[in-house]
Amino acid sequence: MTRAKLPARMIRLACGIAIGCALTGFTPQRAAAQVPFSPFQPVRKIEAAKPLARDVDGPPAVSQRLDGTAFFVDDLGHMLTARHAVVDCARIVVSKEGRAVAARVVALAASDIALIKVPRTLGLAAVFPRVSPSVANDMVFAEAYDRLKPMLAHGGSLGNAFVDTTLRDPEHLVLRSNVTFGTSGAPVLDSRGLVEGVVSRRTTIDRVLAVDAAHAKSFLAAHGVRFQEDDRPQMSGTASRAHRAASISARVTCLQQ
Amino acid sequence: MLILRGTLVLSFGLLVFSPAPGHAQDFRNPEQAPPSWAQFAKLVKYRFEEWIAADETVANRFRNWVIEHSGKENGPPPTLVVRAWLNPDGTVERVTFPAFNDAGATEDLRTILKRGNVGEAPPPEMLQPLNLRFSLNLRKP
To answer: Which UniProt keywords apply (chain B) (predicted)?
Structure first.
């Protein structure tokens, strides 16, 4: 290990915040089935091509991979995602902005959410609503992490889905949305930039279920995660929710044997 | 060859305001600022952390300078207030902070903090600059 690399892995930083004031001149699918969004994809078997080179002490061969989305819920590296995106994995990898780190499952909920952890945070922590949830026809934003980058290149997005209250569900937020594979575990951001739910599965061509914020918060609290709550807007009314989604979320990959 | 072993800790500490008379309105306390401002400031803080911790030439050189000179007369101060102005596209327009005794280290930190995009646009109504206080400590193993 070089002397330059040593401190790079150990650095910690924090800072207080003050904001200058104007007075000093500083102004300045399938219809019947519920479809999860994390497709299994075949992975090339390296060992099959070079059986004699197989590292018996190394990690197990991977035959399938499952890509979903997860998002940070504190500054310690805890993330929420969909349970089905991280269950029964030989390894879990979280990737964001060119970096990839191993993650471990902390807890699986009875509903379709899971708590995972990476060694340290790779993004901004999400904020949940304290009391007031979204209402009918509220525009929200939910998208797979891998689909955010091209969206940001085109200026971002205020919303891509609507809350649907015509279908009653005790623990889910029902969305009118056409999001597709890779969206499992993505945060559902409302107009205030608050996380209203965690994307679970599609029920019809344009209906998506998300585990609602109340259940997600209960799950986090039960496992000692100190998450942020607020009912006030966390971003300006004209700011792109796609950009906030990119700040808080990452790709989560389940490697299966 | 000297092998540096130590942990560079930039510790947390809320900036306490004790403005002089006539400057009482110069700052907005973070607790009193709109949450959207505070969230954006957290994002900037996170990005600055990442850029300083990056495993690349300038950041490595700056961290090594801090470790080698921490606690010495010509070393970095225990705390450093960085003022940052951000453009509407999320790039850092300008940063100011008290210069170190080493011009190279000063320029390195300036380069590091101006190199990237924080990923979001600052709230249009947010007052600038952001004032971020860094505490530099060297923890030896």
So the answer is: Signal
